[in-house]
Design a protein that fits this description.
By secondary structure, the chain is an alpha+beta fold. Helices cover about 35% and strands about 20% of the residues. The strands form nine sheets. Strands 12, 13, 15, 17, 18, 19, 20, 22 and 24 form a nine-stranded mixed β-sheet that branches. The two termini are about 40 Å apart. The relative contact order is 0.07. The structure holds pyridoxal-5'-phosphate. Pyridoxal-5'-phosphate binds near residues 711 and 787. Pyridoxal-5'-phosphate binds near residues 683, 684, 711, 783 and 819.
């Protein structure tokens, strides 16, 4: 690369613009009035011109008297000659022709088919004015966070443009631009003095020099071609039809030139880094999308991040220069902070790490190729068989009972293993350590170990594994060469008093100066028992590697390191199954109808209280698990179930105490006459059985249900489920015995506010009419607090009136308490209490077993007895000893930990916090619910209540990134359902509110953008 650099071998002057000859290119000074005049005189348009920002050219949006803008008037920078402009216009036409699905700001043509272009005089001399196609939708730029699919769409556009321009040649491409990364080192050198803060200036110079050197290593292998070179968020336009804000439009071909093809992508990626919350790994969807359309070679993948860094450096210095020469160009001045943010992010992770992350994401060979160093044992005399392995991963048994949250737990666990006779205890290289996890963290913690920790049970000597050289030595640390690697050994006495200790013997090697040769077997240090030693291997020229790194970048960091296990005689860490591989396998054996949360779900293998823990060692706040009211992995449930499993587990036709005690306890929770309990295994079964009981008891086969409900998947429970979110054909595919009434939603239903009282009358009328038609309903089934609508309370008096009507015609009232019941509402244990009614049949499930499959139907003896006429009831595992014990323990803990009270206290606090958010975020239409059963309903307009499902989905994905699991519900999927384990505390509730606040603030703006 450098051999043809203009510095050393001045290239012939380009025919077109030469940045190095002109340096500053202030935008042409044309006012909106001038622009209006130009539009009239040159193009015969009567329009109002509105200035649009630009850096080098000047652009105006042309508005006619009425209606949408007709075109963009582009006044080219006088530095650009007609051949260059011709090249740009042709390239735009080419991309438009190659990709009709993209909208491209091509030059409009007149009736003769000629481009609408004219040379017009200005105070700065004659300039070229063109009329360009106006693309409504608005650019992607702005402070908001870019969701992965938007980033992917950006990369896909860059890939398509790259493919379209691959063979384009034109004399107007002979130009030297400051944005061409082939000149980036010189641009930085020439302009860096505009960065006036010394620290920033030094940082830019150093980063650019390092990136230039990395690029140099691969530049020979980089293909060149015509590139747009400015496919940034500023120049990619959102499709006005896309509710997701996805780009489909391209503007501004002003930086068209010939350069490295991969620079097209690098420019695009750099603009991603400007957005809120973006960090280097957020560019990967764009890289993958580009690669899918225009595959990157290994060299190009290696060049990509250095190019991003160079682009960032060029942006910073050029932005400063532009602001200096063109101080009244507001566009250039306001861009400065964004440019600095791009730079900060581009250098926030070493380039070598990002290059390996990118290669890993594309399945390209990671450079350098991994190698395992060999040598004599580092810890002399320590037999591998005497080393116990300490599994600190999410799946490690030692992490049970929340042990991972205890300070000093690693040392204590190691001490316990040593006390049991191990000579030493070792951790695993490359393992995500749950002990490094933090709860309520918006950023993933650094959990992945880049070395091995070794606790010594007896004094030991460290010896050089190979011939080599001492690189550095200081108290508690030796760094030496080890083949291609540096072996970094550091130690301290373990903080645990339980560890055996012996006085330290001085390390003879500590007198050896750095740089001294070492022979294999040379003594490096003598360590006392109780020492915690860290062994790490990194490539000789790699940057320093932290002991723990964040999972998003682990593939990159690990590529710079090697597993030191071999130096202890231990086998290297084996490959683990990635979440993506596991998901693929799941897809192969699951039907597509069995959905999973999230497109790219984390692999969750542990839960603790209100946290869900991934195999990356990330603890997510769990806001959705109403099946675990006590919190995940509650020790009392675990102990009770394990004890019962050791003793007996069978079916309830046998005679044992727990099933009796459990049914007594359940019945006691309900008002008279509900005293008879059927135990099943799920909510669907409970609803199915409830319907069967009602139909059997009444002899009436018709059932009335609420629209928008979900009651289960079995034949009968599905028949009464009409939520279109679960089944788009739900209403049209009803069996004839199911009759639905309006969803009595006072917020968004047909009757709102005080009018909602009318729902009951309508439902009563429907029930009466059914009876009048000779088909009186055997049952009315509904949730008693409307969960599926988004935790909406039914209108006051609704159930009282409808129950009365159903009963008047001989039918029974079924209350589905599967979501709302069991204390979650805080003020009421059962949802029907809120309605001041007593149902005839109650269905319960979900919460009952804290995740163990358990369901129940509770009714009166009179109703239950009628089942006799239908034969026999038996459920193999319903009410099994284990299920009964689980159910009893859940009730005990609910009581002992006052979780219903907690739902009142923390739920009330959470609701207040969420309501306060509604004052700041217009998207929040309402906060529904009670206790810890809440719904945040998101609407685009508080008057029309237009639902915001795309925004809700984007929020849920973003919240996951920020450490929160929350999901949409409701027929429009526009309600965040909030039903966390009832043990959630205030800090967690506050974290949720703060995270939602942040995600809403950074959400892609929708609506009338241009
Ligand atoms: C209100 C309601 N009823 C019934 C069911 C079905 O319960 P299960 O999934 O345990 O079969 C559900 C499940 O989401 C529910 O929300």
């Amino acid at each position: 690369m450098s051999h043809e650099h203009p510095h050393e071998h001045p290239a012939p002057r380009p025919a077109g613009v030469d940045f190095f000859a002109r340096k500053a290119l202030p935008a042409p000074r044309v006012t909106a009035e001038d622009a209006g005049r130009i539009a009239a005189e040159a193009f015969g348009l009567t329009v109002r011109a509105e200035s649009l920002g630009s850096q080098q050219d000047t652009n105006f949006l042309l508005h006619p008297d009425a209606g949408a803008p007709v075109a963009v008037l582009k006044i080219a920078n006088p530095a650009f000659g007609p051949t260059e402009i011709e090249a740009q216009d042709t390239a735009a036409d080419l991309v438009a022709a190659a990709h009709p699905e993209l909208r491209v700001a091509t030059v409009l043509r007149d009736q003769a088919g000629d481009r609408r272009s004219a040379t017009v005089p200005t105070t700065d001399g004659p300039v070229t004015a063109r009329l360009l196609r106006y693309l409504p939708g608005g650019a992607l730029s702005g402070p908001h966070h870019l969701p992965p699919r938007t980033v992917a769409a950006m990369g896909a556009i860059a890939g398509r443009v790259s493919a379209a321009l691959r063979d384009f040649r034109h004399p107007g491409l002979d130009r030297v631009l400051q944005w061409d990364p082939q000149h980036a080192d010189r641009v930085v050198a020439d302009l860096v003095h505009h960065v006036t803060e010394p620290e920033r200036r030094t940082a830019v110079e150093a980063a650019a020099a390092a990136a230039w050197a990395e690029l140099d290593a691969v530049a020979e292998g980089l293909p060149r071609q015509t590139v747009h070179l400015d496919l940034t968020d500023d120049n990619l336009v959102r499709s006005p039809d896309s509710l997701l804000g996805l780009p489909d439009g391209i503007i501004d071909f002003g930086d068209l030139t010939t350069s490295w093809a991969v620079a097209e992508l690098a420019v695009c990626l750099s603009s991603v880094l400007r957005h809120a919350g973006a960090e280097p790994h957020h560019v990967l969807p764009a890289v993958r999308a580009f690669h899918a359309l225009r595959p990157l070679s290994a060299d190009e993948a290696a060049a990509l991040w250095p190019l991003v860094v160079l682009r960032a450096a060029a942006l910073v210095v050029s932005g400063r220069q532009q602001a200096a020469v063109d101080g009244d160009n507001a566009y250039a001045v306001t861009a400065l902070e964004g440019e600095w943010r791009i730079f900060e992010q581009a250098v926030s992770v070493p380039s070598a790490v990002m290059s390996a992350v990118i290669a890993d994401a594309l399945g390209l060979p990671v450079r350098p190729a991994p190698s395992l160093p060999v040598g004599r044992p580092v810890v002399a005399g320590l037999a591998p068989a005497g080393i116990a392995l300490l599994d600190l991963s999410t799946e490690g048994d030692a992490m049970d009972h929340g042990a991972w949250l205890e300070p000093g737990i690693e040392d204590r666990l190691a001490a316990a293993l040593l006390a049991r006779g191990s000579a030493a205890v070792a951790t695993r290289y490359g393992q995500s350590r749950l002990t490094a996890a933090t709860t309520l963290a918006a950023e993933s913690p650094a959990t992945v170990a880049t070395g091995i920790d070794l606790w010594l049970g007896a004094p030991a000597e460290l010896r050089a594994p190979r011939d080599g050289e001492l690189v550095a030595i200081s108290p508690g640390r030796v760094v030496l060469t080890c083949g291609l690697h540096l072996l970094d050994l550091s130690w301290a006495l373990s903080a645990t008093p339980d560890l055996p200790t012996a006085p330290a013997t001085p390390a003879p090697a500590s007198d050896t100066p750095a740089g001294s040769p070492l022979n294999a077997g040379d003594l490096l240090a003598s360590l006392p028992a109780g020492t915690r030693l860290r062994l790490a291997l990194r490539r000789r020229r790699s940057p320093e590697v932290p002991a723990l790194v964040r999972p998003e970048y682990a593939a990159g960091w690990l590529a710079l390191t090697a597993d030191p296990a071999g130096l202890l005689g231990l086998p290297a860490t084996g490959a683990t199954t990635s979440p993506a591989e596991l998901l693929h396998r799941r897809g192969a054996s699951f039907a597509t109808v069995q959905e999973h949360y999230y497109d790219e779900p984390p692999r969750i293998e542990r839960g603790w209280r209100h946290h869900l823990v991934s195999t990356d060692g990330r603890a997510y706040l769990d806001m959705v698990n109403n099946v675990t009211p006590l919190g995940h992995a509650h020790p009392r449930v675990e102990r009770a179930v394990a004890r019962q499993l050791r003793r007996l587990n069978t079916n309830s036709r046998f005679h044992y105490a727990s099933v009796v005690e459990f049914t007594e306890r359940l019945a006691a929770l309900l008002p008279a006459p509900l005293d008879t309990v059927f135990l099943v295994n799920s909510g669907s079964e409970a609803v199915d059985l409830a319907l069967r009981l009602a139909i059997g008891a009444t002899g009436h086969h018709d059932v009335v249900a609420l629209r928008e409900a979900y009651h289960g998947w079995t034949y009968a429970s599905d028949a009464v489920s009409t939520s279109i979110a679960d089944n788009p054909n739900a209403l049209s595919s009803r069996p004839s015995w199911v009759h639905t009434v309006d969803s009595p939603n006072p917020y968004r239903g047909r009757l709102r506010g005080t009018d909602a009282a009318g729902y009951a009358a309508d439902a009563v009328r429907a029930v009466d009419e059914l009876a009048a038609s000779g088909r009186p309903a055997g049952a009315f089934v509904s949730e008693s607090f409307y969960g599926n609508a988004g935790a909406v309370a039914l209108p006051d008096g609704y159930l009282r009136q409808v129950y009365a009507a159903v009963r008047r015609h001989g039918g029974l009232a079924i209350a589905d308490e599967i979501q709302a019941g069991y204390g979650r509402l805080g003020t009421w244990f059962w949802g029907f209490e809120q309605q001041d009614v007593v149902p005839d049949i109650v269905t319960v499930a979900k919460a009952m077993g804290n995740g163990h499959p358990l369901g129940a139907v509770i009714t009166s003896r009179a109703v239950a007895d009628r089942y006799r006429d239908q034969g026999y009831f038996f459920s193999s595992t319903g009410g099994s000893p284990v299920s009964s014990v689980a159910g009893l323990t859940v009730l005990d803990v609910l009581r002992d930990e006052d979780l219903q009270g907690n739902a009142v206290r923390v739920g009330g606090h959470l609701r207040d916090g969420l309501r306060a958010l509604a004052d700041r975020h217009a998207l929040i239409g309402a906060v529904h619910g009670s206790g810890l059963y809440l719904g945040v309903e998101l609407v685009r307009d508080r008057d029309t209540l237009e639902p915001a499902p795309e925004e809700t989905a984007e929020l849920c994905d973003r919240m996951l990134e920020l450490g929160v699991v929350v999901q949409p519900t409701g027929d429009h999927l526009n309600v965040l359902k909030i039903k966390p384990p009832l043990c959630i505390d205030r800090p967690a509730a506050d974290f949720f509110t703060a995270t939602l606040d942040r995600a809403l603030t950074e959400l892609t703006p929708r609506g009338p953008a241009r």
